[in-house]
């Protein structure tokens, strides 16, 4: 059998395995499910993600761009689910800040999966589900966003000076999403926003009307809160 | 979809003041083209390179403001809001296929990259349009800035006819 045919057969087999495992694991993406089952589901997904990555690397090596982008999409879909499960586990472990970071990572992985290939086109509903979790499970806190002037930057795909090539930001190229790699910038402003590009840049503490500094997620007084809430 | 039409500086005069040739056809203007004290201050919107690549792919010729080998710095913002560059279009461009092709390329690109966050993706596209009216004394040029804000899908509804209507409505 030709090497060409073999990789496509392996990708087909992977897709079947992926569908089966994802359906099994999604059953545990609820707060009522026991922590140990959620951890087992996550641990089942980790090797699946590694397998997707290996197949992606092989597709890249053989220069099958569509297959490489599809495998990037599968890798990120698996990553999204791992992060969602980690979020539920962190909430049960009373680590809300960590749970928030996992939720944001799940959202980012979903977006990357959808940008990478149309095999993830069905994820719009999942993305809405993650947004609903964000709105209903976490308080509405402010985020921070930077504005800057770029003096020097490169294309992440070809390394040329940014703007000199035809690669488009957020589009997939041979298993990678294009981004602008900023090398030199001048900071213009830092703003408090509600729809940021990076939801990891959030308000960590708030001073209430009585002057008490409180954790933005737990409302515990920072001085009284145990260190476990600041592990991330 | 939110649309705002406002007056804009005399593009021809401003370009000459800054030491550039007056734009003709379709030109991407720096975001502070109207307020910069000198050409050293000119800054492009961060999405300029993407729009230029899209124009090139669509076969739309841009008459660049920058001189040969010159490159303006550009801005970046960490936000889900996609803010397009200020696109200058001369009157004759409104009568050919350039605007529908340009908008179609941009909206298709945005539709793809907004996957996974379409419910909260916001897009702003801005045009500066030139109208030339023949008078007894010669030509009277007027410039209007049209800002369109909406979802990536909203952009598909915009065409040259709509832009012309917006310009005419703002005159009344």
Walkthrough of the structure:
The complex is a heterodimer of chains A (232) and B (172). With 232 residues, chain A is an alpha+beta fold. Chain A is built from five helices and six strands, in the order H-H-H-H-H-E-E-E-E-E-E. In chain A, helix 1 (3-26) packs parallel to helix 3 (65-92) and helix 3 packs antiparallel against helix 4. Residues 226-232 of chain A have low confidence and may be disordered. Chain B has four helices and six strands. Chain B has helices at 11-17, 48-57, 98-113, 160-171, and strands spanning 2-7, 26-29, 74-77, 81-89, 122-135, 138-150. By secondary structure, chain B is of the alpha+beta class. The radius of gyration of chain B is 16 Å and the shape is globular. Chain B has a five-stranded mixed beta sheet with strand order 1-6-5-4-2. The A-B interface holds A 107, 110-115, 120-121, 123-124, 127-128, 131, 145-151, 162-163, 166-171, 180, 182, 185, 188, 193, 195-198, 201 and B 43, 46, 48-50, 52-54, 56-57, 71, 73-81, 109, 112-113, 115-120, 122. Strand 1 (143-155) of chain A pairs antiparallel with strand 3 (74-77) of chain B, so a sheet runs across the interface.
How are the strands ordered across the major sheet of chain A? 1-4
What average pLDDT do the residues of chain A reach? 92
Helix content of chain B: 25-40%
- The DSSP helix count of chain A reads 5
Sheet-strand content of chain B, in percent, reads: 25-35%
Biggest chain pair contact, residues each?
A-B, 39 and 30 residues
How many runs of DSSP E, i.e. beta strands of chain B?
A: 6
Question: Oligomeric state of the chains?
Answer: heterodimer
**Which whole number gives the mean pLDDT of chain B?**
87
Q: Helical amount among residues of chain A, as a percent range?
A: 40-55%
Class from secondary-structure proportions of chain B: alpha+beta
Radius of gyration of chain A: 20 Å
Number of helices of chain B: 4
């Amino acid at each position: 059998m030709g090497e060409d045919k073999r990789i496509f057969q392996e990708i087909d087999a992977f897709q079947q395995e992926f569908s089966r495992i994802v359906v099994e694991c999604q059953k545990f993406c609820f707060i009522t499910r026991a922590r140990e089952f959620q951890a087992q589901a996550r641990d089942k997904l980790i090797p699946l993600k590694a397998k997707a990555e290996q197949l992606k690397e092989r597709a890249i090596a053989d220069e099958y761009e569509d297959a490489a982008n599809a495998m990037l999409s599968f890798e990120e879909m698996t990553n999204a689910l791992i992060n969602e499960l980690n979020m539920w586990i962190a909430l049960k472990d009373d680590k809300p800040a960590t749970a928030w970071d996992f939720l944001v990572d799940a959202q980012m992985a979903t977006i990357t999966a959808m940008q990478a290939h149309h095999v993830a086109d069905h994820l719009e509903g999942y993305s809405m589900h993650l947004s609903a979790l964000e709105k209903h499970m976490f308080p509405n806190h402010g985020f921070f966003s930077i504005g800057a002037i770029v003096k020097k930057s490169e294309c992440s795909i070809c390394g040329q000076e940014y703007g000199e090539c035809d690669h488009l930001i957020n589009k997939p190229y041979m298993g990678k999403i294009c981004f602008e790699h900023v090398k030199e910038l001048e900071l213009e402003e830092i703003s408090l926003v509600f729809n940021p590009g990076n939801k990891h840049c959030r308000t960590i503490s708030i001073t209430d009307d009585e002057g008490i500094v409180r954790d933005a997620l737990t409302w515990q007084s920072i001085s009284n809160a145990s260190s476990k809430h600041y592990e991330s | 979809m939110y649309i705002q039409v406002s007056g804009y500086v005399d593009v021809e005069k401003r370009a000459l003041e800054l030491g550039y040739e007056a734009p003709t056809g379709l030109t991407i203007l720096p975001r502070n083209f109207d307020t910069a004290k000198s050409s050293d201050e000119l800054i492009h919107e961060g999405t300029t390179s993407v729009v230029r690549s899209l124009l090139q792919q669509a076969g739309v010729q841009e008459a660049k403001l920058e001189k040969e080998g010159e490159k303006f710095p550009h801005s970046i913002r960490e936000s889900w809001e996609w803010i397009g560059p200020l696109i200058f279009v001369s009157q004759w461009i409104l009568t050919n296929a350039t605007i529908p092709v340009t908008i179609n390329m941009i909206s298709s690109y945005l539709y793809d990259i907004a996957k996974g966050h379409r419910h909260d993706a916001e897009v702003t596209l801005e045009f500066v349009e030139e109208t030339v009216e023949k008078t007894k004394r010669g030509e009277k040029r007027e410039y209007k800035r049209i800002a369109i804000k909406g979802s990536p899908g909203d952009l598909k509804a915009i065409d040259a006819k709509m832009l012309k209507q917006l310009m005419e409505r703002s005159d009344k």
